[in-house]
Amino acid sequence: MTHGKTHGNTTTGGTTGPDTDAAPEFPVEPIRALLLEQFGVIDELLADVHGDTWYTPTSLPGWTVKDITAHLIGTESMLAGIEAPHVEIDVHALGHVRNEIGAFNERWIESLRGTPGDEVLARYREIVARRREQLGAMTQKDFDEPAMTPVGQATYGRFMRIRVFDCWMHELDLRDALGVPGDEGGARAELAAAEIFGALAFVVGKRGKAPDGARITFELSGPLARTLHVEVDGRAAVVPALSGQATSIVAMDSRLFVRLAGGRTHAFDRLDEITLGGDTTVGRRIVDHLAFTI
Questions:
Q1: What is the pTM of this model?
Q2: Which residue, 21, 58, 89, 235, is the most exposed by fewest CB within 10 angstroms?
Q3: Where are the alpha helices (DSSP H) in 26-155?
Q4: What is d(CA 128, CA 92) in angstroms, rounded to the nearest whole number?
Q5: How would DSSP label each residue in 72-91?
Q6: Please, which residues have CB within 8 angstroms of residue 26's CB and are 6 or more apart in sequence?
Q7: Residue 150 and residue 161: Cα distance in Å, rounded?
Q8: Closest C-alpha among 146, 158, 3 to residue 69
């Protein structure tokens, strides 16, 4: 759950329907393998963090490198059936807590506030080992089971794809804070970004308020390079091709797109890295409202 603001507006998931021969919408593989790989990548990144570096601020308000680690521990602990700890402070009173998911996250962070970073890393490794064992025993049937997720009622498999997204985004948060760049493409990135691209119609139509008849093209360069189209015909929808010439074009590097979508930065601070074409008023409104995490 991304900073207690995990996304709530992507398409809801579930099983693929009564056709048992159909490929599952959220297959246990590769989701499980990529989630376990993601756990390991974060471990390797944190292994080089020592001393006061644990307290390096990140782009998430109020959170340090250690706090992100504590948050990851908390979410995986919840999935392992461990209750959130009781804390003395009213976490709802914290300025960056805006919902119950945020309050849940802060209980774990506050509970580990006085714990040294190396011990927090040890706790992360312990819960990841437990989750590896649990996930390793799961079948496709387990992944198809109904589950309450950060986007509402869906399936356990959908929740695990959201976990890939969340952990991948936090890997980027850690890398940005620590000044340790990494490869932002590949299988983990593609699976994580599916959550972002799945929210694009909502972002364009509801948040960006693209008018009826608008045809938007996103040209992404960089590690997740692709062309995406959204057309508004009564409601916004991602389409394979536009029915006519694009009315607005938005072009940027996928690394910036991901951070805008995750609410890690703001378009008005990065306008020199964004190219708008066609109806630039609509294009600017869309990039100003790309964030879909809550």
A1: 0.88
A2: 21
A3: 28-46, 65-79, 100-111, 117-136, 140-144
A4: 28
A5: HHHHHHHHTTPPPPP-SS-G
A6: 13, 143, 144, 155, 157, 158, 160, 161
A7: 11
A8: 3
Eight-class DSSP state of 205? I
Q: What tokens appear for 290 in the block?
A: 């790309």
Distance separating alpha carbons of residues 37 and 42, to the nearest angstrom: 9
Tokens standing for residue 163: 């976990």
Distances (CA, A) of 65 to 68, 149, 196, 263: 5, 25, 23, 17
- Burial class of residue 148 (count of CB atoms within 10 Å of its CB; 0-12, 13-18, 19+): exposed
Q: Which residues contact 76 (CB under 8 A, 6 or more apart)?
A: 127, 128, 130, 131
Q: pLDDT tens digits, residue range 213-257?
A: 999 999 999 999 999 999 999 999 999 999 999 999 999 999 999
Cβ 292 vs Cβ 196: under 8 Å: yes
And the tokens for 49? 């963090």
pLDDT tens figures, 141-163? 999 999 998 888 999 999 999 99
| Residues in the chain, overall count | 294
Q: Residue 63, SS3?
A: coil
Q: ω into residue 30 within 30 of 0, thus cis?
A: yes
- For 149, the 3-state DSSP assignment is strand
